[in-house]
Every structure is written in C-alpha cells, then in structure tokens.
Design goal:
Shape: elongated
Strand content: under 5%
Number of helices: 3
Order of helices and strands: HHH
Radius of gyration: 28 Å
Number of strands: 0
C-alpha cells in the first residue's frame, strides 16, 4: 500500500514540475520570437547566480558547513542565435559534401589495397 502511494506521489510531483515548466515556457513566450527568448536568457543570467549564492549560503548556515568563496563566473558575450545558426550551417555543409567525400575516400582506399596486392603478388 505504501509503495503505491509513494509511486503515485512521485508521479504527481514529476507531473507538477513538468506542468510548471510548460507553463513557464508558455508564459514567458520562450517559443516565440528569438528576441523574447534572448531577453529571457539575459534575465536568467542576471537572476540565477545571486539566487544560487543565497541558497548555498542558507544551506551552509542550516547545515553548519563552510564553502570557500569561489571566483565569479566569466561573463560571456555571444549571440546564442548566431552560434546556433553557425552550428546548423556547419552540419548541413558537412552533410552536403558527405557523398563526394565518401566516394573520394573509398576510391583512395581501394587504390591503396590494389597497390599493396600488386606488391605482395610479385
């Protein structure tokens, strides 16, 4: 009986977390235009590190632990959209030349095998 209740509670908690994530994505319009997504990313970059620091300090205080002070994280200024697009372009470029490269490498390999076969047959 306890196992069934526990598994039901786990299912409900996981469903609540998933539902909350879907609601947050919809509410913040993260699946909409990229400028809104980038604004949400910038907002998260500003809010999350201080919140994590405060939470870690709270946990340390409650548990009686002492965590050494870490250096602040690096600030990276790059466009996520440009990075994504360059990755997609690189992948598509590689896929478009794959048949000709496969032909070239298989031909070079076959010629190598023929040369070695001729050397051993002498």
């Amino acid at each position: 009986m306890v196992a069934r209740v526990w598994s039901l509670m786990r299912f409900l908690i996981k469903g609540s977390v998933a539902g909350g994530a879907v609601y947050l994505v919809y509410d913040q319009e993260l699946l909409g235009p990229s400028d809104k997504s980038q604004a949400a990313l910038r907002k998260a970059e500003e809010v999350v590190p201080p919140a994590m620091y405060q939470f870690s300090q709270y946990v340390c205080k409650q548990m009686g632990l002492q965590i050494p002070q870490l250096s602040p994280p690096l600030k990276l200024n790059f466009s996520l959209r440009d990075s994504w697009n360059s990755g997609i372009l690189t992948m598509m470029s590689a896929l478009s030349v794959a048949p000709s490269k496969a032909y070239h490498y298989s031909k070079a390999g076959w010629d190598y095998v023929k040369e070695r076969a001729k050397e051993y047959s002498k």
